[in-house]
Specification:
Length: 356
């Protein structure tokens, strides 16, 4: 546990949930944990007791990537953890593969077709997922991503070749999407079981991220917007190359920091915790420090996003991590550029650099 984590309260200590099992963390709210084949090696998912149109059952929140191991864990949960009741709906916080990957499969009842239920998402997340699942692009790979990062200083031929060969990255992890969905909007109230949950949208990490807050239960299902140990990735990707996601993310944090101090936060990665305002203050301090580093190095001369990466990330990075590191370095540069602190220049080598 690092020094910042000591400022948070982890009500369940160091205990984790084994894949294929559940743990009740609030009345009617159950924690699941599934593996991921990345450096970030897990995702937290949630099962909530529910009733729709008089039918008792469950709401699933987030799904994991499309992977045979994770499917097997879900089948174990369906067989042993849900008391013979059906899933009544699948709610996905946002379109990233670890959250959306198995949504279509779970909506259709898993391997045995146990039920056929609706996917609930915001419009921005659903449509973005549909586009990427159709094979029309990926933030994490393909020719567009390689061209985007090359323009921002990633010139290593091996890295660029790896990026190009990852063009089907998203589609492998999200092989299908439901053709219909139910739209969630900011401020909507969704009744799940005994409690009303308010939809809290957030921006910067993804197009229209949906968190859920129940004041009566004292619980925030925060998705990826607030994480206890790591900072949420905020990146500029090829599909929106002049975007300002860090400004959007920092603005979005205001929506959470006014929630009660004793709110139990259920994040998508890491352990459930209390201390939401403290964690948001830590995240703001983190980004302030990164922005100060970027200002300082840009004062010494023009810098590309690739020049900024080793300043912000002082460790070896594989190609998966490099895409997010490049995107995040660019997000910090863009905030300062679009605020007027930096100017953007394209060199004779066609690489874009930023300077005071």
């Amino acid at each position: 546990m690092n020094a910042l984590e000591h400022q948070l309260d982890y009500p369940f200590g160091d205990s984790l949930v084994e894949p294929g099992r559940t743990r009740e963390v609030a009345p009617g709210v159950y924690w699941l944990r599934m593996p991921l084949p990345f450096a970030l090696d897990h995702i937290n998912l949630w099962l909530l007791r529910d009733q729709i149109d008089g039918q008792n059952g469950w709401t699933v929140i987030d799904c994991g990537i499309a992977d045979d191991t994770i499917k097997a864990h879900w089948e174990t949960i369906f067989d042993t953890q849900i008391e013979g009741l059906p899933v009544l709906r699948v709610l996905v916080t946002h379109c990233h593969p670890d959250h959306l990957g198995l949504a279509d499969w779970i909506c259709k009842g898993g391997a045995r077709g146990r039920w056929d239920v609706r996917l609930w998402m915001t419009l921005g997340e659903y449509m973005f997922g549909r586009v990427m699942a159709a094979g029309d692009g990926s933030n994490a790979g393909g020719e567009g991503a390689a061209r985007h990062f090359a323009r921002h200083g990633l010139t290593d031929p091996e890295a660029l070749d790896k990026l190009r060969r990852r063009g089907d990255y998203y589609k492998k992890l999200v092989p299908s999407m439901p053709s219909q969905y139910r739209r969630l909007r900011d401020g909507d109230t969704v009744t799940i079981g005994a409690h009303a949950w308010r939809v809290v949208t957030g921006y910067g990490h993804s197009p229209e991220h949906c968190a859920l807050f129940s004041e009566a239960a004292g619980v925030l299902i925060s998705g990826d917007m607030v994480l206890p140990r790591i900072s949420t990735n905020v990146s500029v990707f090829d599909i929106e190359p002049e975007s300002n996601p860090l400004a959007l993310y920092l603005q979005s944090l205001h929506r959470y920091e006014t929630m009660p101090a004793d709110t139990l936060v259920l994040p998508s990665h890491g352990r459930p915790f209390r201390g939401l305002a403290t964690r948001i203050a830590q995240l703001r301090t983190h980004h302030d420090a990164r922005l100060a580093e970027v200002r300082e190095v840009c004062a010494s001369g023009p810098q590309s996003a690739a020049d900024i990466v080793p300043i912000m990330f002082r460790r070896p990075l594989d190609i998966h991590q490099m895409t997010f590191a490049m995107g995040e370095a660019l997000a910090h540069l863009h905030l300062l550029w679009l605020d007027g602190e930096l100017e953007r220049r394209e060199g004779a080598d066609r690489v874009i650099r930023f300077a005071r």
